[in-house]
Design goal:
4-stranded antiparallel sheet, 17 helices, 7-stranded antiparallel sheet, globular, 470 residues
C-alpha cells in the first residue's frame, strides 16, 4: 500500500513514478533550500541580468508540462560553469555559465533543460532513490565521510544542489530543453553548439563541469540528437525565423565579472587574501581549497582533514565559542585566551560528542581559533580524526596563528576581470582579432572557447566578440 501511495503521475511522460513526496512537500523543500543556495554562492549583483533570466524563465515555465507551480530564477555569483535546479521550481545559473553563452538561444536551451528537470520531477525522484550527493564542493569531493560529518556546515540544506541525474533523465531534459526553447521562439540548434563549448572547456582544463557533463550522454551523440530534435520542432512549429539574438545577449553581459572575483577573496602563493575584509592567512602547502561567500575551505588531497574559515555571531569571543560548540555538538577538551598578531583570540580543542544509540565511529577532534578583528569574529576550524590530530595540528596552527591584517595596497586594490564586448574593425581570423586586442598568447584558446569559436574561424567586420579586461 505504501508503494502505491508513493507513486505519482509524471507530468511529462504520463507514467507512474516512485516519488516519496507530494507536490506541496516538493515546493516546501525548494523554499527551504533557496536561502542556503543564496548564502552559499551569493546573488550576482546585476538587476538587469536578474530580470532577464526571470522574464525568460517565467515565459518558458508557462508553456512547460508543469506550469501550475511557482518558479523562481536566479543568477548566483560563482565563476563555475553550471546551471542547476532544485525541487519545487527553483532554477539557478552561475555568472560563469552566463559568460560562456554567446546568444539568447543557447541560454534558452539550457534554461529549458533545467525547467525540464523540475517538470519531469527528476530531483524528487532522485531523493526517493536516496542518491543525493552530500554537500558538493570540498566536503563532498575531498573529505572522507567521517570527517565530513563534523565539517558539514556547507552541506546542510545544500544536498539538493548537486544531484546526480541518470543519463535517461538528462536525455529527457535535453529533449524538453529543445521543446520549451523552440516553443518560445528560439533556435534550439544553438543549444547543441553550447554543449561543444562545455566539452572544449572540460578538455582544456581537465576539470569536471558540475551538473552538465558528469553523468551526461556522450557529447557527440548529444550534439547530434539535439540538432535532430531542434530541426523537428522547427518544422512542427513552422519556425521559419527562429530567434538566435547574438548581439542583444552579448550587450547584456558586457561588464560581467569573469572568473574568480578577488573582492571576495583570492589565493596567491598559498596565501588567502580578502581585500574587502582586510585580512590574510597562509594555506597549508599542497592543500586544495574552495572559496564561497559563506566560507573558505581547505583540505589535503587525501581527505584526512579539513580547515575552514567562517564568520560567527557573538558579542564576545566566549559567547561565540559557546554557540559554536553547541551548534557543532562539540565537547571542549582545552581552551585558552591567546593573541594572534595582536588580535584577541580564543584557542579551543574540542571533540565531537557521540550521539546515543549511534554506531561507533572514528572519534573526531577539532582545533578552533576564534579571532576578533574589525568588528567581526572569525572562526578558523580544523577537523580530523583523533588518531590523526597530532600529525595535522601543526598545519592547523600555522594557518590560524598567521591570520593577520592585510595592508599591502596592491592586494587591497585588486579588481576582477570583466567581459568586454568589442566590435571587430576589419575582417580577419579570430586569432588575428584577439591578437589585435593584445590577448596574451597563453589565453588565446581560452578566449576562443569563451566566444564559441575556433582560432582559425573567419570573423567579419562588425561582428561582436568577447575579450577580457578590468
Amino acid at each position: 500500500m505504501l508503494l502505491f501511495n508513493s507513486c505519482a503521475t509524471n507530468p511529462v511522460t504520463g507514467k507512474r513514478d516512485l516519488i516519496l513526496m507530494s507536490e506541496a512537500q516538493e515546493v516546501a523543500l525548494g523554499q527551504q533550500s533557496d536561502p542556503a543556495v543564496v548564502a552559499q554562492f551569493g546573488l550576482y549583483q546585476d538587476p538587469a541580468l536578474q530580470r532577464f533570466i526571470e522574464n525568460k524563465g517565467q515565459a518558458m515555465a508557462a508553456i512547460s508540462h508543469r506550469s501550475n507551480i511557482e518558479y523562481h530564477f536566479k543568477i548566483v555569483d560563482s565563476p563555475v560553469i553550471n546551471a542547476f535546479a532544485v525541487p519545487g521550481g527553483y532554477v539557478y545559473f552561475t555568472r560563469g555559465i552566463m559568460a560562456h553563452f554567446n546568444n539568447e538561444a543557447q541560454f534558452a536551451g539550457v534554461l529549458g533543460h533545467e525547467i525540464g528537470h523540475i517538470a519531469a520531477r527528476h530531483s524528487a525522484q532522485q531523493q526517493a532513490k536516496s542518491t543525493l550527493a552530500q554537500g558538493g564542493l570540498i566536503l563532498g569531493t575531498i573529505l572522507s565521510p567521517t570527517v565530513a560529518q563534523a565539517g558539514n556546515s556547507a552541506a546542510q540544506g545544500l544536498q539538493l544542489l548537486f544531484l546526480k541525474f541518470g543519463r535517461d533523465d538528462e536525455r529527457e531534459s535535453d529533449r524538453l530543453g529543445v521543446e520549451y526553447s523552440s516553443k518560445i521562439g528560439y533556435d534550439a540548434e544553438e543549444m547543441a553548439d553550447f554543449f561543444v563549448t562545455l566539452q572544449r572547456q572540460q578538455e582544456k582544463g581537465g576539470e569536471a563541469i558540475p551538473g552538465f557533463l558528469s553523468t551526461h550522454p556522450n557529447p557527440a551523440d548529444r550534439f547530434e540528437t539535439v540538432n535532430k530534435l531542434a530541426f523537428e520542432w522547427k518544422q512542427k512549429l513552422n519556425l521559419t525565423n527562429a530567434q538566435v539574438e547574438r548581439n542583444s545577449y552579448l550587450k547584456r553581459i558586457d561588464g560581467l565579472v569573469y572568473g574568480e572575483d578577488p573582492r571576495q577573496g583570492f589565493v596567491e602563493n598559498y596565501t588567502f587574501y580578502h581585500p574587502e575584509l582586510k585580512f590574510k592567512f597562509p594555506i597549508p602547502n599542497g592543500w586544495d581549497y574552495m572559496n564561497s561567500p559563506q566560507q573558505f575551505q581547505m583540505a589535503p588531497k587525501d581527505g584526512s582533514a579539513m580547515l575552514s574559515l567562517t564568520l560567527v555571531p557573538g558579542e564576545t569571543l566566549e559567547a561565540a565559542a559557546q554557540q559554536l560548540l553547541q551548534g557543532y555538538n562539540l565537547q571542549p577538551v582545552e581552551s585558552k585566551s591567546v593573541t594572534v598578531n595582536s588580535l584577541p583570540a580564543l584557542a579551543i580543542i574540542a571533540d565531537l560528542k557521540q550521539q546515543q544509540g549511534q554506531q561507533q565511529q572514528q572519534e573526531i577532534r577539532t582545533l578552533i581559533y576564534l579571532i576578533k578583528y574589525n568588528g567581526n569574529i572569525y572562526n578558523l576550524m580544523g577537523v580530523t580524526t583523533t588518531a590523526n590530530f597530532n600529525s595535522v595540528a601543526p598545519q592547523f596552527s600555522s594557518t590560524m596563528q598567521n591570520f593577520s591584517t592585510l595592508t599591502e595596497a596592491e592586494k587591497l586594490n585588486r579588481q576582477p576581470e570583466r567581459i568586454q564586448i568589442k566590435t571587430v574593425a576589419q575582417s580577419s581570423s579570430l586569432l588575428q582579432v584577439l591578437q589585435s586586442y593584445k590577448v596574451p598568447e597563453a589565453r588565446l584558446e581560452e578566449l576562443a572557447i569563451l566566444n564559441g569559436m575556433q582560432l582559425s574561424d573567419r570573423i567579419d567586420k562588425g561582428t561582436m566578440i568577447k575579450v577580457i579586461g578590468k
